[in-house]
Amino acid sequence: MLVPLYDTVHDRLDVGRNTRLLALDCGSGLALLLAAARGAAVTGYDQDPDRLRLAADRMAAPQRLGTLPRGALTTDTEACLRTGAPAPADLRAGGYGVVTALDPATPAEVLRPALSAVAASARPGSAVVLAGWGPPERCSAARVLKVAARLAEPRGQAVPPPRLSGRDDLEDLARGAGLRPDGSGRVSCPFGYQDQASAVRGLLSTGLFDPAVAATDQQQVEKEIAEALHPYRRPDGTVRMENVFRYLIARV
């Protein structure tokens, strides 16, 4: 559902055969796959081995990751997947012209150290792209996600809020890491599901409702999500939530 965001960023930075792209918190690799399809040489880092296994499948890796020891997986599409975060030596040697941090669920405090390392060690002039939710009033999904915070509250479970929805939050994060803002934009990314059950399942898969499930139970959380989705159900039974995401281009 974030494909419009990925495509817009790739178009704006002319990602293609001459691009070496590094993705922070690459997740299950959809943005990497789209960049590789344009001919870019891509490298992705993530803390979650299970997500990297999904990314390897998407990149048509010739071998399985197995237990995924720290290190690289090189695929036939010039893709390299690594656990953790890039070390300064990797950033200096990689020659990356584009660095992305496009997962809006990554908290700013988690992302900040990696961005600081990029600012200190990546190639001067490299583009660094950050993304986050747009204004809450423009994001239907943000209203539904409030259910997670409310249900998790009784037991004090930590619920990461939608990241970087303030007007200058992306710029503040970039400047705080030593990067220079150099342009921004907004992209419409509607969340669409074939029915209510698919919408509930899809939202639960984000992990943002895990603390709510721990504080209550799965059935209660599913019930509350379904109720919150009611305003977004269409006459044909599908569910559609209009959302806006914002991206910032900064320079090393």
SSE pattern, N- to C-terminal: HEHEHEEHEHEHHEEHHHEE
- Going by CATH, the architecture of one domain would be 3-Layer(aba) Sandwich
Structural class category: alpha/beta
Question: Kindly, what is the distance between the CA atoms of the first and last residues, rounded to a whole number of angstroms?
Answer: 29 Å
CATH class of one domain: Alpha Beta
| Named CATH topology of one domain | Rossmann fold
What helical percentage do the residues reach?
25-40%
**In which order are the strands of the major sheet placed?**
3-4-2-1-5-6-10-7
Radius of gyration, whole Å:
18 Å
Number of helices: 10
- Low-pLDDT runs: 62-76
Q: How much is the average pLDDT?
A: 88
The CATH H-level superfamily of one domain is: Vaccinia Virus protein VP39
Strand percentage lies at 15-25%
Main beta-sheet strand count, sense and barrel state: 8 strands, mixed
Features:
alpha/beta; globular; two-stranded antiparallel ribbon; 252 residues; 10 strands
